[in-house]
Amino acid sequence: MVEAGSDISFDSRNQISNTKDAPPPPLGFPDYLPYFKRYIDSKWCYHSSAVATATIIDVQDKFAFQIDIWSLIEQRWLDWDENPYRGEETPNEPVGDIWSFHFNVPITIIEGKRTDYINLYHTQDKTICLSCDGAGIRTCSSCDGAGHIDCNVCKRSGTQANGEKCSNCDGRGITQCSSCGTTGKQNCSRCDTVGWLLRWAVIRVKWFTIHSVLYEQNSTLPEKRIRKAPKTDFCTRDIPWSTDYTLDNYSDLFKYIQQYSPIQFQNHITEEYQKKHLSKADRSDRKMVKLSCSISQIPVKEILYTTGNHINKADPKKGYIFQYCQYGIDKDGFPLIYEKDYPLNCCGCFGERCACQCRCAIL
Ligand SMILES: [Zn+2]
Ligand SMILES: [Zn+2]
Ligand SMILES: [Zn+2]
């Protein structure tokens, strides 16, 4: 077993640069507006006059994180298998601890489930075949031992509807049983006529992955936006794990969060781990065998602006101030924008005077 806590890989290129280190060269506030205008112009029904007169009054650095945790759960149980006995060794030793046997564990993140098994030949034992009581042959199940069955044409009457003799059974009302050839007996297929079975224990194992996602942020971005945004890895780890471990084995990860993240969310990771992962492994037939954690981040800028005499009707507490978030980069290389209080966001396509701050009926 690899010791927990080893093999850590942090991506130093993606350290958050403006918490403890020097901040990036400041953009002049107006430099943000062209991106916002591009966003407003792309929105059907928005009118751009409010962005044309907007003045940015503050830009704050915020962060959003997505934390993915995967745990690989292993389930083991005992099964028995059998074959006709052919003179094999029959040590008949006890099974032992089923968790002491070694399996090759799959990777942490698997689709569906994987299974495997180990035959425990040391448990081999000879036992009488209960299907034939050791005789090797048994009563024919088709004719129930009679050797013949009722004629399926005349239903045992021996005559046809017109009163003539049934041609299928020659008037006898019964036909020969084809399953046993009239003997009323069949070879026992379970023991292959031997009368004895070889039985042995089999350890069966099943693996499946539990995945949970947690979001942490000090911005106002909805979780859906964080989920969809392109992100950079903050750190990833994938290590052999045991149900007995606690996340203290991840102490270097927590140290990293403390050092580089402006938000302290290690307690939430611990809660998530206990609730969504550890609790699922808390059964005598299950163990957690691998754990993987990935934390990715999106830098977010929260931008406050005023524009003309517009009052924030979506959030009256803000008065003349509006807010939007600039986060991540879209596929064309432009910043992604999130807002929900742009003043002219409804019916602006019919002219500025029609635009208002309310839910657009068309959208
Ligand atoms: Zn018949
Ligand atoms: Zn038969
Ligand atoms: Zn049998």
| Backbone shape | elongated
Bound molecules: zinc ion
The level of helicity is 10-25%
Number of helices: 5
Distance between the termini: 57 Å
Poorly predicted regions:
1-20, 359-363
Order of helices and strands: EHHEEEEEEEHEHHEEE
Q: Write down the overall mean pLDDT.
A: 85
- Major β-sheet profile: 8 strands, antiparallel
What does this structure look like?
Residues 1-23 are annotated as: Disordered. InterPro entries: SSUH2_homolog. The protein is mainly β and 363 residues long. It has a domain at 9-69 and 207-350. It has five helices and twelve strands. Strands 1, 2, 3, 8, 9, 10, 11 and 12 form an eight-stranded antiparallel β-sheet that branches. It has a two-stranded antiparallel sheet with strand order 4-7. Strands 5-6 form a two-stranded antiparallel ribbon. A hairpin with a 5-residue loop joins β11 (322-329) and β12.
In short:
The chain has 363 residues and is mainly beta.
Structural topology:
Elements: E1 9-10, H1 33-42, H2 49-52, E2 54-84, E3 113-128, E4 137-139, E5 148-150, E6 174-176, E7 185-187, E8 196-217, H3 223-228, E9 232-240, H4 251-260, H5 266-281, E10 286-307, E11 322-329, E12 335-339
Antiparallel strand pairs: 1-9, 2-8, 2-10, 3-8, 4-7, 5-6, 9-10, 10-11, 11-12
Bound molecules: zinc ion (ZN) (3 copies).
